[in-house]
Design brief:
CATH topology of one domain: Elastase, domain 1
Distance between the termini: 28 Å
CATH class of one domain: Alpha Beta
Radius of gyration: 29 Å
Strand content: 25-35%
Number of strands: 53
Shape: globular
């Protein structure tokens, strides 16, 4: 995970009913990690400097208290972000800057009580990183950083997707990925890593789904060290038949507007005139709607100007039917219009699009925030609330919703799921993401991202429970999205259950950032369940205030589960919780395994080779009984180096690459030579080589970019690369004479992928246009000595082909012939194309969804994951092994699971026999591990 590990470990508004702080008590100080500044200070009654704003007083106080806070110059290094006030209380949120450059997650909060013109500091919390020593002068240009960021996102998107499938008929052209430089940011790992922050937008070329990624590129060497999604999705992973959403007919009685709901006279509020409209929700309930007459369009529009006390603020619901998620994510199509109707009674067309539900629910959520917490809109300052409805993918369905930093977007649903706005808890969830972004701004990755999801779940659930008067004793009260079903029972459609009982010790799923942004949905109910349990113990109203206070006045962007526990406990104490109530809060978190140091208890059944490799997007390699892998230092702040070691554990690992400030990644070895990629500040990538026995480093190739596919055997080195425009190619060359080079593909109409080499033969996948708009996909083996290129197999039209690997007798590859959704074939053939055998067929009860492949002379190991409606261990990548020379009819062919580790089992590489090494993320921080033989079956 590299610098991304900081998001996991150190990384990782108003309150209307606020009470006066408790009487003076002993000062409680919780020390920070990797910083001299305390993480939390409670029980203060310190006088704040007089005069000026709350932010001025907070910074002056920190300057006066340097001995406690170790902040050398608060007025210089802390920039005010926001101040929330209520009932004489003030909470000032300050952003850390290091030599003028913002620090990711570096926020500190000062809480004060103001009375009779004087301020008293009652507590502080947050993260201020005192150990930063990095330079703030970049060596990489913005242009290179943007290019590298786009390449990194492209690689991440394609990691588990095969090449070959053309867009379906009628599908829109995927929006190309583009990058926007956002300036310099210091990542707070060790002494700090200076990065260029780049936002990448576009569409996933395989799915058409929106892409909005925040990428941080090392400003010294140009390597992307961290990326996470800027789209906070509801992420409804339930399997559906994917049929388009039906055009449901309205019940006859739904059109009859009750007299009590009749339109009222226009009401004026300041300079604005409002109308009372009417609509029918998807559950058949008629509801009043605040609307506005649009004289230009001559329609009544779903725009509510009555709530937000600002001449320009409103709650508006926009018609996005005909738009795909990518077309509205992070941008605003100019042709969108607010949903309108010729009369104040909105027709069922608006119901069917989800517009009535979205408009009604947005008002409910706004009222909850205002009435329960004194908050004026999502940002606390009256921002306009925009909801887009009717969004669908090219197949006419979209079962998801998201907040993209500007607005809420609701999918149209499908044959079983109603439009996503039909769930008040879904609307509350997405709008809470907006509240989080304008308060704690929890980074949407790893543990902080899981807390982001958990708090959005909590308030979505709380708002629905409040609106429908659902008691916490109801067995279904913890469900989220249960009202989205068209035909099934609520529990069958619920997306999550806050009462699922998940704990860190039994349920935490350690995954890399390429999987669910580091587990933001997979692990959310661990923390969300603790909050829900507190709600059962302390009651709804009291717990809602505590969680809101923790969010807006304690949490900071990189907090993890342990800091989240401390924040909730501190907020409870500040709001006057009794000793018994505080113990109840502690029990709730302890019951879910959230205690200090819980990560240390997560074990593995494999042998650790390199602990905390702290790398991003670098695969290990192996061969000839040796492994090779990239590793950073303990805190992930140094550029990556390549290390090598013996698979049998003899001797000490040896450093292979030079410490020259570049990032050395994606190594491969045959047990004699190591080859790898080097990323530096000047742009481009070099392929380097060095004998395992030692000697000079040799440059073999330089180009714009290389893929993660790298291999070496004897004198032959092969790798994948991308030309401008993402055109993929394969290169192989002589280790002794690098000028002896052969290139395949890399053009607009001829591209090649995933090479591997063994005993002088290179296997690869090939895509070639054979006639207009028609392409042929083939699996190849080329004899390097003679140049003879053998077509092993032509894929059937519409098939997708995956990575290759090769040993001395056979070539192996992965194939998806679209015969069964989310399953793939593991196929083998002799080097002349004869004797084709499917080691794991695409159909059948034991079929896998394999996406990575590695072979030795003895075994075939694949990485497989199953898109799954359940949050469970089996839905994340695992390793499976087969005998390389077997067949499906041979009972000994399938050896089963390589490891029963609960977390993600990342890219693997075969050594000798059945031994495999891989990157394992069970503990939340990736380590290089190995097993000499598969475990077989995991119960």
């Amino acid at each position: 995970m590299g610098v991304a590990a900081l998001v996991v470990s150190v990384l990782p508004a108003h309150d209307a009913a606020a009470a006066d702080p408790p009487a003076a008590s002993p000062v409680d100080v919780v020390p920070g990690q990797r910083t001299q500044t305390p993480a939390l200070v409670q029980g203060l009654r310190d006088a704040a400097p007089a005069g000026g704003s709350a932010a001025d007083a907070a910074r002056s106080y920190l300057d006066e208290q340097r001995g406690r806070y170790r902040i050398a110059a608060a007025r210089r290094d802390l920039v005010p972000v926001s101040t929330t006030t209520s009932g004489g209380q003030e909470a000032v949120r300050l952003q850390q800057r290091y030599r003028g450059v913002p620090v990711l997650g570096g926020q500190y909060v000062v809480r004060m009580q103001q009375k009779d013109g004087e301020r008293t500091v009652t507590g502080t919390s947050g993260k201020y990183f005192t150990e930063l020593r990095t330079t703030t002068t970049p060596e990489v240009s913005e242009a290179i950083a943007v290019e590298r960021a786009i390449d990194a996102v492209t690689t991440e998107l394609s990691e588990r997707k095969f090449a070959g499938q053309e867009p379906p008929a009628g599908a829109p052209e995927p929006a190309p990925l583009t990058g926007t430089a956002r300036g310099l940011v210091v990542l707070p790992s060790g002494a700090g890593v200076l990065t260029r922050h780049v936002t990448v937008r576009g569409s996933d070329p395989a799915t058409g789904l929106p892409v909005l990624r925040e990428v941080y590129v090392d400003a010294r060497a140009g390597y992307p060290v961290l990326q996470y999604s800027g789209i906070k999705t509801l992420d409804a992973p339930r399997a559906t038949d994917r049929r388009p959403a039906p055009n449901v007919q309205a019940p006859a009685e739904a059109h009859a507007r009750p007299k009590a709901q009749a339109r009222t006279d226009a009401r004026a509020r300041g300079p604005r005139a409002a109308e009372r409209g009417f609509g029918v929700k998807l559950d058949g309930q008629g509801v009043a709607l605040e609307v506005e007459y649009d004289a230009y369009r001559k329609v009544y529009a779903l725009r509510d100007r009555t709530r937000i006390p600002d001449d320009y603020g409103s709650l508006a619901t926009w018609d996005a039917r005909g738009k795909t998620p990518s077309e509205v994510s992070g941008q605003w199509p100019p042709e969108l219009e607010v949903v309108g109707a010729p009369t104040p009674a909105f027709p069922f067309e608006a119901t069917n699009a989800g517009a009535v539900d979205a408009h009604w629910a947005a008002a409910k959520v706004y009222d909850y925030l205002r009435d329960k917490h004194g908050r004026n809109s999502l940002d606390g300052h009256g921002m306009t609330i925009d909801s887009l409805v009717g969004v669908a993918s090219y197949d006419g369905s979209y079962v998801n919703a998201f907040w993209d930093g500007q607005k809420m977007v609701y999918g149209i649903g499908d044959a079983e799921f109603r439009p996503l706005s039909a769930g008040l808890d879904v609307v509350g969830h997405e709008m809470t993401h907006g509240v989080i972004e304008h308060s704690a701004n929890l980074v949407y990755a790893g543990q902080s991202g899981a807390m982001n999801e958990a708090i959005a779940d909590y308030f979505g659930n709380a708002i629905e429970a409040d609106a429908y008067d659902i008691p916490v004793s109801d067995p279904d009260s913890g469900l989220l999205g249960e009202r989205l079903c068209r035909t099934k029972e609520p529990r069958a459609c619920a997306l999550r259950d806050l009462n699922d009982g998940r704990t860190t010790s039994k349920s935490f799923l350690g995954v890399g950032f390429g999987t669910d942004n580091g587990g933001v949905h997979l692990n959310s109910t661990i923390f969300g369940g603790a909050l829900w349990d507190v709600r059962q113990e302390l009651g709804a109203e009291r717990t809602d205030r505590i969680v809101y206070r923790a969010l807006t006045q304690y949490l900071t962007p990189l907090d993890g589960f342990t800091e989240g526990r401390a924040a909730v406990l501190a907020a409870a104490k500040e709001l006057g919780a009794t000793a018994a109530e505080q113990r109840a809060v502690e029990r709730a978190f302890t019951g879910h395994g959230i205690v200090p140091g819980w990560e240390l208890a997560l074990g593995v059944d494999s042998d650790v080779i390199l602990d905390r490799v702290n790398t991003t997007d670098s695969n290990p390699g192996g061969g000839g009984g040796w492994w090779v892998a990239s590793k950073s230092n303990e805190d992930g702040s140094e550029p990556y180096s390549v290390w090598a070691g013996r698979g049998d554990g003899a001797g000490e690992p040896k450093l292979i690459s030079p410490n020259d400030g570049r990032y050395h990644v994606n190594p491969a070895t045959d047990g004699k030579t190591v080859v790898w990629q080097a990323f530096g500040s000047g742009g481009g990538v070099e392929i380097l080589a060095r004998p395992l026995a030692g000697g000079p480093v040799k440059k073999l190739w330089r180009g714009r970019g290389a893929s993660t596919a790298m291999d070496v055997d004897g004198d032959v080195v092969t790798f994948g690369h991308a030309n401008h425009g993402g055109r993929q190619g394969v290169t192989y060359l002589s280790l002794r004479d690098p000028a002896n080079i052969v290139r395949i593909g890399g053009g607009t109409y001829h591209q090649s992928y995933t090479p591997s080499v063994s005993r002088g033969k290179v296997a690869y996948q090939d895509k070639r246009r054979v006639r207009a708009a028609e392409y042929e996909w083939t699996t190849h083996v080329v004899d390097v000595a003679t140049g003879q290129d053998t077509v092993i197999q032509r894929a059937t039209p519409g098939a997708r082909i995956g990575p290759t690997d090769i040993n001395g007798s056979h070539v192996f590859w992965l194939l998806d012939e679209q015969t069964q959704q989310d399953r793939t074939t593991v196929r083998r053939a002799a080097l002349d194309g004869s004797g084709i055998v499917d080691l794991s067929p695409q159909t059948g009860p034991d079929a896998l969804n394999a996406y990575t492949l590695t072979v030795s002379d003895d075994s075939v190991t694949v990485g497989s994951y199953l898109p799954d409606p359940e949050i469970r261990n089996e839905s994340i990548p695992k390793l499976y092994q087969f005998a390389a020379g077997g067949s499906p009819d041979d009972p000994g062919t399938r050896r089963g699971r390589v490891s029963c580790n609960r977390g993600e089992q990342g890219p693997a590489t075969a050594l000798t026999g059945s031994q495999v090494v891989w990157l394992d993320a069970t503990t939340g921080i990736s380590s290089l591990v190995t097993r000499s033989r598969p475990t077989g079956h995991c119960g």
